[in-house]
Amino acid sequence: MEGADVLTLVAGPHAASIARSYTRDCLSGLPQPAIEDALLVVTEFVTNAVLHAHCSPGTELSVVCAVLRGHTRIEVHDPGPCFDPRHPAVSEPGREGGRGLAIVGALARRWGAERSRGGCLAWAELDLVGVAGTHPAPPAEAPTG
C-alpha cells in the first residue's frame, strides 16, 4: 500500500505477536474496539500465513496497517499459495480452529485475498469504531486485469 509503513517479519512462533504489537502502535489513538478488531484480523492473517502458506522458518512476511478515510486497512503478504475467501474451509463441530476467516468476515466491512508479488495478499478493511455490523462481510471479488 503506497505511503504506509511496512513491517517485515520472519515466519515463526512469534510472528503473530510481533504483528499485533506493530498494529497496536499503528492504530494508537483510535477507539479501543477498532484496535481490538484489527488485532484479531492481523492475528488471523499472520497465523494463517505461518500455518497454511507453507512458510518455512525464516520465510519473510510483510504486514501493513493504515488508517484511511473512515476505516483501517490491514494487509498481510506471504510467499505461499493464495486461498479463495469465497470458499472458506468449514469447521467441524468440536474441532479446534477453522473459524478465523468467519471472524474476519464478521469484523470487516470488506476483506479478501489475491495473488500478489508471487504470493498471497490477504487484506481487510475495518470501521474506525469497531465491529462493522451484525452481518458478516462477504469477501470482495479479486480485481481483474
Shape: globular
Superfamily (CATH H level) name = Histidine kinase-like ATPase, C-terminal domain
Number of H- or I-type helical stretches: 3
Strand order of the largest sheet: 1-2-3-5-4
The gyration radius over C-alpha positions equals 14 Å
Task: Write down the secondary-structure element order.
Answer: EHHEEHEE
Strand content: 25-35%
CA distance, first residue to last residue: 18 Å
Just name the CATH architecture: 2-Layer Sandwich
Number of domains: 1
What does this protein look like?
- This protein is α+β, with helices and mostly antiparallel strands and 145 residues long.
- The protein has one domain (6-127): Heat Shock Protein 90 (2-Layer Sandwich).
- Helix content is 28%, strand content 26%.
- It is built from three helices and five strands.
- The chain has helices at 15-26, 32-52, 100-107, and strands at 6-10, 60-68, 71-78, 110-116, 119-127.
- A five-stranded antiparallel β-sheet has the order 1-2-3-5-4, with helices on one face.
- The longest helix has 21 residues, at 32-52.
Topology (elements, then pairings):
Blueprint: E1 6-10, H1 15-26, H2 32-52, E2 60-68, E3 71-78, H3 100-107, E4 110-116, E5 119-127
Antiparallel strand pairs: 1-2, 2-3, 3-5, 4-5
Which key terms come to mind for this protein?
5 strands, 145 residues, 3 helices, alpha+beta, 28% helix, Heat Shock Protein 90, 26% strand
Concise structural overview:
By secondary structure, the protein is of the alpha+beta class.
